[in-house]
Design a protein that fits this description.
By secondary structure, the protein is mainly alpha-helical. Helix content is 83%, strand content 0%. The chain is built from 3 helices and no strands. The radius of gyration is 26 Å and the shape is elongated. The protein starts with a helix and ends with a helix.
Length: 66
């Protein structure tokens, strides 16, 4: 009888300890993808940053013209 009373509580403890697992897994995968994209001198992230900087430079030059 005591064992039957402890069983639902045990299930709740098991469920609550693994509820944040998926969020942690997604965060880890996202961090690894971001790291892989930023590696190297000509990585996609570096190309994006340099393209935005170039367009901003051209934009500021254009609006500074009389």
């Amino acid at each position: 009888m005591t064992r039957a009373l402890l069983r639902p509580c045990h299930r709740l403890l098991m469920r609550s300890s693994s509820m944040g697992q998926a969020a942690t897994d997604y965060l880890l995968v996202l961090a690894l993808v971001a790291l892989a994209m930023s590696l190297g001198a000509q990585g996609p992230v570096n190309e994006l940053v340099s393209a935005v900087a170039e367009h901003y430079r051209r934009f500021t030059w254009a609006i500074s013209q009389p």
